[in-house]
Amino acid sequence: MAVGNVKTAQGLNDLNTYLAERSYVSGYTPTQADIQVFDQVGKAPASNLAHVLRWYNHIASYTPAERKSWAAGVSPLTAGGKPTAPAPAAKDDDDDDDVDLFGSGDEEEDAEAARIREERLKSYADKKSKKPALIAKSSIILEVKPWDDETDMKEMEKQVRSIEMEGLLWGASKLVPVGYGINKLQIMCVIEDDKVSVDLLTEQIQEFEDFVQSVDIAAFNKI
């Protein structure tokens, strides 16, 4: 499915339909195609475009450094979109390609050549060890159920979003009819796996006993 100009209402609606059954615009992991579409969208869309808003908040949760490491992807913005290339890395005066790990010269290298090679190997290993580690994240959709149809759902959502943890980012939300005039709150969040416990998060939500009857996990995806 091709998506039109996302700076127009029709283009955003097309993108919302496109993302209804997708976590990313290309494949099952974030790619440079997500960045291309993200930049074209420009700002968080209206709440009625729930799928675009979920995806937009998710991409926004990554740092620029993390985005640079993503692979190329196929953009849906034009029919038969072409792969997008990762952003070029800044030129480093001590680029790894410039390091001759094995030295050169005669097979019988002298002590000075051996010393230089060891220094280069050590420098290369130091640079590798300083590269940032990939942060494991998960995208979760929670369903928070009220006691009855008299529960103030806006206040319930306010209470849920009041929970703050390092590594927790709240995303889009919507009310989903359950029956008999009762709605449940469906809300998305992105967590850093090493910092946020899902069990602890759901327990904290359930502590709002005046509003919350129960909390279920509707979707849980590793990023």
Automatic annotation (TrEMBL):
Gene3D superfamilies: 1.20.1050.130, 3.30.70.60. Residues 137-223 form the Translation elongation factor EF1B beta/delta subunit guanine nucleotide exchange domain. Keywords: Elongation factor, Protein biosynthesis. Residues 74-113 are annotated as: Disordered. Coiled coil: none annotated. Residues 101-128 form the Elongation factor 1 beta central acidic region eukaryote domain. Pfam families: Arc1p_N_like, EF-1_beta_acid, EF1_GNE. SUPFAM superfamilies: eEF-1beta-like (SSF54984), GST C-terminal domain-like (SSF47616). This is Elongation factor 1-beta. It comes from Arctia plantaginis (Wood tiger moth).
